[in-house]
Design goal:
Number of helices: 19
CATH topology of the largest domain: UDP-N-acetylmuramoyl-L-alanine:D-glutamate ligase
Number of domains: 2
CATH architecture of the largest domain: 3-Layer(aba) Sandwich
CATH class of the largest domain: Alpha Beta
Largest sheet: 9 strands, mixed
Number of strands: 16
Strand order of the largest sheet: 10-9-8-11-12-13-14-15-16
Structural class: alpha/beta
Strand content: 15-25%
Oligomer: single chain
Length: 490
Amino acid sequence: MLPFEEVTVLDRNAQYLGVPMSQLMENAGKAIADAVMKKYNLAGKKVAVLCGTGNNGGDGFVAARYLRVHCDCTVVLLSEEKNISSDIARLNFSKIRGKVKTVVTPSNMGEIINGNDIIIDAMLGAGQSGKLREPYAGIVKRLNASRKQIVSVDVPTGMGTDSAVKPAMTVTFHDLKEGMEDARCGKVLVVDIGIPKEAETYIGPGEFIYFPKPAQNSRKGENGRLLIVGGGPYTGAPAFAGSAGYKMGLDLVRIVTPSSAAQIIAGYSPSFIVHPLPGQVLNVSHIKEVLGLIGECDAFVLGPGLGTAPDTMSAVAELLPKAPKPVVIDADAIRAVGLNRKVLKGVKGVLTPHAGEFELLTGEKLPEDLDGRAKAVKSWAKKLDMTILLKGPVDIVSDGNIVKLNRTGNPGMTVGGTGDVLTGIVGALLARKVSPFNAARIGAITNGYSGDLAFQDVGYSLGPGEVVCKITETLKKFVEWWTARPAPPQ
């Protein structure tokens, strides 16, 4: 079943793949009309299509255009025409003007309902919650009391609220929506409206509906504070992660690292707040201080550049169960988790292994084929109760329930440090309150697409710094791409 938000993800990804929203609405409206004609003998019947001002109403306008040649059809627009919220729905309303009887902002809903044999509910779509507002609440009450034959479009109006339409049939698109069952929806008919399989399989611009934009009145610290626990034997990895975090819109990046690496890491950027730990590597004596710093941040990253010293492995195992914030576990920290997976109990976040690290984590060698890999990632994500982002020629992201693939990125990104960029991107999203699964899939496409942009400039000479520099361009493309086409109110 599709969560309501994923409907918008699919629509956006379908558009990006070349299927315009206008075509999806046309297919949806025709499917509704076909379903009504198949279920009912329309000869001599009167049909009223009750339409809201969003795209659910737009589907109703299209359905009425097809139904008008088979029955006495009336479109009832529940608000003024100027309030139709999308260009596509507005266009489809103009196509029925003069061809189909229309009633705008009716004052006689009781007469309309009683005077028609079949009512098509195209008022509100997916994603409602709480209480229905007027005029919808009153109309739903009248409809349910009328005992008329009701057909709902995509989902019954009010599903998920305290009051919902109780239809004889619901015509839903592409897949069942979360919460749909016969008791609520009547007979449910799932129809294909032309959303490509790729729109569901592969991560695309639609995923950026989950990207958090700062509030107009937000203050420093309210847009994410990330702690990176890394470095010691290696100094570049935590710096690349931190640089990527800032490009993702974080307010604050702190890096806690052994003193042997602290000065070098601080030299990468004056924006980093670097906390030195005594010694050469992370060890259990540092746990109390690190936990205190984690408590001051919204999420943390564990692993970049830590190394594999036995003291470090012990410190990772002791730290994880005590840390109360979401985490990205990467690089050498994955090796530590593989030694005792029980340390993940109660931990929420993202694991970012490549194929070799996945084997260290699970004890299993990944299959060569993509389907086999996807099944393994999904299975282990479920077992560990973590999101896994498997890095590879095609990235695989799963939370144990859903699997998404990412095909951005290029062979030049095998260079050291690009994985740390990905870790910083995902960590930044966690710190900005994005769920682990959504952070992982947005992170995968952001990192890969930024790498592709860098490759266009420098070819196989690209390094992690070039990838970081392209994050801004990637976000401008994809965040603005969907915000320029806002999801219409349903």
